Amino acid sequence: MASLPYADVDSNLRDLAGKAEGFGRLAIGGLHGPIYSVTTLADDGPGSLREGCSRQEPLWIVFEISGTINLSSYLSVSSYKTIDGRGQMIKFTGKGLRLKECEHIIICNLEFEGGRGHDVDGIQIKPNSRHIWIDRCSLHDYDDGLIDITRQSTDITISRCYFSQHDKTMLIGADPSHIGDRCIRVTIHHCFFDGTRQRQPRVRFGKVHLYNNYTRNWSVYAVCASVESQIYSQNNIYEAGEKKVAFKYYTEMAADMEEAKSGLIRSEGDLFLNGVQSCLLTGIGEECIFHPSEYYPTWTMEMASDSLKSVLQVCTGWQAIPRPAELMTSA
Q: What positions carry a catalytic annotation?
């Protein structure tokens, strides 16, 4: 049986704070604030999620009701918030969450489906946001991305999420003109990309650590390294459908450079199934790719295997788990 990380975060309500693995490990969300209870599925007004997220104070947001919140516009989340969906079934539709110029955000155990409109992402992280953890969410069928991380947003972890029914799944780094995106650092682990077409993820400029993810049945490619990006792919499972190429390289020219470049990918311990062609470029700049241990000392990882594949199909995305009690700890 595969062992997943975060076995201890569901014992006490606030045990999520500061527990992410990877680049988002410092995210504390609303640890030091009171509990805010969402009591209505209305888009706005008293007791709504939008009202809680707009408050300029730390809050640990929980839900006292299950159902669908139809967002008429992006819901902006201010700094030091935890949006904790444990204990209920909350689905967002219409639009998504926007993390703009904020820090210390935790988003846990929610579903996103059916976002419509130009530039509408499930979770849009830009600009200048940091210390973010997105955990155990289900995301599908938005008009743009499911999670997009751009414009100097950094120190982010995405874990135990389920992605499906989508085209351009995850963009990290805006475009070649946004050279400030060289600061971007993202960890993606124990996620299941189930038939999403491409961008699992696509990266420009940033550093991305992928480990113990399962990606299957893509239609264009699995992972793409664009201009100056560095992708460390470690003990992931790539299972092809009709399209066999796992790794793609796109050459683009940064705005402050005179030569176009692609990104770099290092594959270590990855499992390739059903005739996958990794198409990995070897011997070209591999020594320049970062190693995660330069930034964080430990992470929970096992060999890529059929056992891990089976577990990720069950244990990713929204889960029907109770909301933990808030237990007071002695100083």
A: 199
